[in-house]
Amino acid sequence: xxxxxxxxxxLLNVDNLVVEYGLGNKTVHAVSGVSFQVARGETLGLVGExxxxxxxxxxxxLQLRRAKSGRVLFDGEDLTAMEGEALRRMRRRVxxxxxxxxxxxxxxxxxxxxxxxxxxxxxxxxxxERKRRVHEVLSAxxxxxxxxxxxxxxEFSGGQCQRICIARSLVLNPEFIVCxxxxxxxxxxxxxxxxxxxxxxxxxxxxxxLFIAHDLAVVKAVSDRVxxxxxxxxxxVGPSEQLFARPAHPYTELLLQAIPVPDxxxxxxxxxxxxxxxxPIAPPSGCRFRTRCPRADQRCSAEIxxxxxxxxxxxxxxxxxxx
Amino acid sequence: MSAPLLTIADVTVELPTPRGNLRAVDHVDLSLExGRTLGIVGExxxxxxxxxxxxLQLLPKKAKxxxxVMFDGQDLVRLAPESLRRLRGxxxxxxxxxxxxxxxxxxxxxxxxxxxxxEHLELDAPEARKRSIELLAAVxxxxxxxxxGQYPHxxxxxxxxxxxxxxxxxxxxxxxxxxxxxxxxxVTIQAQILDLLAREQRRRHMAMIIxxxxxxxxxxRADEVAVMYAGRVAERAPTSALFKRMHMPYTEALLAAIPKxxxxxxxxxxxxSGRPPDPTRPLRGCSFAPRCRYAxxxxxxxxxxxxxxxxxxxxxxxxxxxxxxxxxxx
Lengths: 323, 330
Ligand SMILES: Nc1ncnc2c1ncn2[C@@H]1O[C@H](COP(=O)(O)OP(=O)(O)OP(=O)(O)O)[C@@H](O)[C@H]1O
Ligand SMILES: Nc1ncnc2c1ncn2[C@@H]1O[C@H](COP(=O)(O)OP(=O)(O)OP(=O)(O)O)[C@@H](O)[C@H]1O
Ligand code: SF4
Ligand code: SF4
Ligand SMILES: [Mg+2]
Ligand SMILES: [Mg+2]
Fold this sequence. Notes:
- The structure holds two protein chains of two kinds.
- By secondary structure, chain A is of the alpha/beta class.
- Chain A contains eleven helices and twelve strands.
- Chain B has two domains: 6-222, Rossmann fold, CATH 3.40.50; 229-259 and 270-316, no CATH class.
- Chain A: Keywords: ATP-binding, Nucleotide-binding, Transport.
């Protein structure tokens, strides 16, 4: 399975990225030294609980939030060092899809104009050409351009709004898209439609995706590899199937145990590890998961665990990985 | 079989809207015995919350309710407001998706707990305080004494939901309605809260209704499941029977559309096409017909009634039920 191996020249190479927020006189350690790669044509899933820094990481990759340190190499070029026109040109090659499709569409603009907007910003002056592109992407996401282009966002359901957002993100022919919880706000039945659509678009337009979600089953459905994040750091990265079958990090195992399975014969694991994530303002020393980890010992509070290979292509940041 | 604690009989809820009359709940019958858990599942807008509000008699002012809600021998629909108020919070408690719906942001947690307790039970202040601490400990709040003096905003979302549960449990309710109690929470916290509810329910022999859009949440935790679609109960059965053999095409489609952990990556999901009908424009036939792959002309002409075939407690509303044993059914 060659899709599992990160090929020599990854499209995206994130190196030791640190992102912080100021909060009064305190610092929120949102992303603390995260490194990963995404190969061309690959989907990397990013999971973790609320507040662990997924959106911050996604936005920092796209330079919508500048990192404090670290590098983001896209197709070999360091985005963190770019500014002005160079950065703008680069941004056309990358896009972002948000969780809340309705809120991310301007309620006063018509769908056709919303989808055409990136083209205008990118300087496509030919109106006929813009119209052609808008029609093309709207049809691609399963909407009838003649029926929808003239209408306003409130006339559409959440699922349809997400289709429109996807169309808008495709209109500049990007190579890479960060999907930030694109289906979390949608119903089960609509969620399946949108996940299938994303897979289809990925194949059709040769996209590379960073797919953020907190639902492990959703992430697994679309990802070649999965990265698990906890309180600003990566715990584990590996091929989806392998990571779910044999998690090496205790946090990955906890997440897997907590998922409600739609099968009454599978008894819910009584009392998965208790506690809640600590605050990213004062994260624990050493391993950030240690306050909830059943395996924690002294070394875990003294020493930050580095990501180490535990199986082919699978890396875990833990002093005492699961066998 | 003991007499049910709760019987919802032919309940319909209609709401006037600018687009016309909206039938949010459409002739629903359900019942629940003491100590049992009923899961109500369905997509957004199918009427789960309106149904639970009908039970609690907390409907929007303009809403029109018909039918009966028998709780512990009395019809709540005809009960005087004063008696209703006494009942709610005491025998009939509720936990909402957003704990801030039931918590007051300007009062300390201790005040809110003790107020509820003293309103319904004859306890003096020190006794109410002692009971508050016990309750907070029971729902897994560390250092409960210190928490009493804190405000809701000083707690995480998971903590707030625990506190809302403590308040709901404070007067030993006979029935607890939990409307998407964990939808806003992370999976690990969700599992903790669901465990907590199950444990307290067993301990108190309380009846519980869990409302959710996640079949996974009810699978391991409800005795019986009612699947709602477009304001109606589409299928209803003991949980194990339902998952073993679902008879409604809608239930089957809903389960199939959930991404499964044991499926290989990039497996296309069997999505349900389209979306539920506009509730102000009810269909003549089966509401699922436009999306159903088994639909026939008959389905578009008439509404299937809730019936049973093989097992009396497995009800479904479908002209062409699936997974029926040989020779039974339509
Ligand atoms: N603008 C901001 N100012 C201060 N703190 C922030 C800001 N944005 C995010 N944070 C904090 O940074 C941390 C990471 O937030 P982020 O939104 O990246 O998490 P997330 O994993 O995307 O969470 P969710 O699943 O809830 O979307 C959180 O503790 C959050 O409260
Ligand atoms: N105050 C209201 N006025 C008019 N219509 C309403 C009102 N509240 C809800 N509705 C409508 O009633 C129907 C049932 O809504 P309800 O809130 O019961 O759905 P639900 O199953 O709880 O959905 P969700 O999963 O989104 O909570 C929906 O069509 C909804 O739009
Ligand atoms: S490093 Fe220690 S605390 Fe962290 S996950 Fe591993 S065993 Fe647990
Ligand atoms: S009655 Fe007909 S349309 Fe409705 S669920 Fe059954 S087969 Fe489908
Ligand atoms: Mg986020
Ligand atoms: Mg609801």
